[in-house]
Amino acid sequence: MTHVLRCALILLFLVAGPALAGSPETLNAQYKSLSEQLERNPFQRKLVLESKEGGNQLSGDIYAVIDHPFADVGNAFKLPGTWCSVLMLHLNTKHCAVTGTTEAPKLAVSIGRKFDQPVADASRVDFRYAVKSASADYLDVELDAPSGPMSTRDYKILLEATPIDGGKTFIHLGYSYGYGTAARLAMQAYLGTLGSDKVGFTPTGKGSGDAQDFIGGVRGVVERNTMRYYLAIDAWLDAPAPGQLDKRLAAWFDGTEQYARQLHEVSRGDYLTMKQSEFRRLAASP
Q1: CA angle, corner 199, sides to 256 and 279, nearest 5?
Q2: Would you give the end-to-end CA distance of the chain in angstroms?
Q3: Staple partner for 264: which of 32, 130, 227, 260, CB 3.0–4.6 Å?
């Protein structure tokens, strides 16, 4: 594999979040406006996925109903350590550590390839971490990094949450990043070779049923990773205790296999073995 393709693979899995933060009123208005789409969609769960490309910027957004009380979601996701546990479920997250100070925490995230590899061989992105709002009816957490590998920049991750009827929670997960010439060329190289048959979730309008065509290219990349991180949040909430790691890993993998055409990359056994090794390495870190 060429150096350009290796760099492209790293770029594909760097995370970030887009849209400007809102308020409980704004988020509830979004919930109401999306009510029909949340009930009727191809995901077999209450979820809406959107993506955008333009101006050397990529972004993805998921709006979803989580079957967990807002108190559980809010209390967990205002803590930077929770985010490391969630991000580590992704195939390409090799290491995550909370750094900085109590007043200004950061997340040092190492992104690599879809097999176990030394952390030193991965690319590191340092995210600034901020709880913008944490009240009885609204959570707004944002992570951002001004720069990343090659010519990538302006990484952002956003999670908003608010309680809804039935003891459930409505969330908005978003990410975005900008890129320059080097990153664009690396991405084009990947999409023209190893990633040429990869697709996202947005239908193109061509075909139907199992033969339906879906969007590819960089928007396909954004949509796949948006879904992977949403599934990581969902899996963590279903098994949040430290002793539930195996259950959490299995839930994430099984969730991705529900969308195998888009998300399948490795076997279940290979994923579980790799992640168990990476979590042991994480636990042994100073």
Answers
A1: 35
A2: 33
A3: 260
Higher pLDDT, 190 or 257: 257
Q: What is the pLDDT of residue 216?
A: 81
What's the token pair of residue 170? Answer: 């409505």
Helix (H) / strand (E) element for 131: namely: strand 123-134
Instruction: Render 148-166 in DSSP notation, one character per residue.
Output: -STT-EEEEEEEEEEEETT
Residue 101 CA to residue 109 CA, distance in Å, equals 16
Query: What is the gyration radius of the CA atoms in the chain, in angstroms?
Result: 18
Nearest CA to 139 among 173, 167, 106?
A: 173
Please say whether the beta carbons of 154 and 52 come within 8 A: no
Cα separation, 256 vs 271, whole angstroms: 12
Tokens of 171: 């969330």
Three-state DSSP at 16 gives coil
Which residue would you say has higher pLDDT here, 59 or 37? 37
Please give the backbone phi and psi of residue 116, each rounded to the nearest 5 degrees, phi first: -65, 135
- Are the C-beta atoms of residues 108 and 129 closer than 8 Å to each other? no
Nearest Cα residue to 282 out of 2, 79, 93: 93
Task: Give the CB-side neighbour count of residue 185, counting CA atoms within 13 A.
Answer: 8
Asked if residue 173 has pLDDT above 90, the reply is yes
CA-to-CA distance for 136 and 275, rounded, in angstroms? Answer: 35
**Tokens representing residue 44 in the block:** 């077999």
- In the numeric block, which tokens belong to residue 236? 């963590």
For the stretch 205-215, pLDDT in tens is: 776 555 568 88
User: How many helices and strands (H and E) does the chain possess?
Assistant: 10, 8
| Contact predicate 61/226, CB 8 Å | yes
